[in-house]
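worker-03 picked up job from queue 'complexes'. Input manifest follows; two sequence lines, order preserved.
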Amino acid sequence: GAGVSQSPRYKVAKRGQDVALRCDPISGHVSLFWYQQALGQGPEFLTYFQNEAQLDKSGLPSDRFFAERPEGSVSTLKIQRTQQEDSAVYLCASSGRVQLTFYEQYFGPGTRLTVT
Amino acid sequence: SQQGEEDPQALSIQEGENATMNCSYKTSINNLQWYRQNSGRGLVHLILIRSNEREKHSGRLRVTLDTSKKSSSLLITASRAADTASYFCATGRSRLTFGEGTQLTVNP
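worker-03 finished. Artifact:
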């Protein structure tokens, strides 16, 4: 079946521009996660949705970052007034498990954002 | 911030050799996962080990966990060129906290 898809795959933005990154999770997956991965580093958590509810946004680096999942499926990560330090790969992951023990997360290919 | 560290940061071996990567973490855990990332397939889940397990196998992968030392190791046996990738350990129930990764290069 189809995996997690993200668009665009690459985005170049001029400093100060707003960008919107889209994530289509695996159909039926309840949980959706956004991570930011800087070059040569591991992914870092940004935010987490269970259905349409944003349960944890503690990883968002500033109030310029905003995420939504209004119908509990597709999610959009928006970055306002982009800065050079926002350049990174943005990864989306989804998971179908709601149990309390663990989640195996399925990751999309990522969106590589370059702010010039 | 990263949960822990992988060791070594980079590893280069010949095809057929075994590769061992280590991960240390800071807080108590319920489980620890290993992921692989390469340019072709993105970030892929490899194996999960629960905190009450000491060793787990999956194909050519062997993972150990020592909760007293807050460390885990991933062994890949009989490595192949296709194993070339970055390997990350991750902890957490929902939000995952990743280490900084080990870049493994398997030379044909």
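worker-03 released lock.
The radius of gyration of chain B is 13 Å.
Chain B touches chain A at residues 1-2, 30-31, 33, 35, 42-45, 48, 50, 88, 90, 93-101 (CB under 8 Å).
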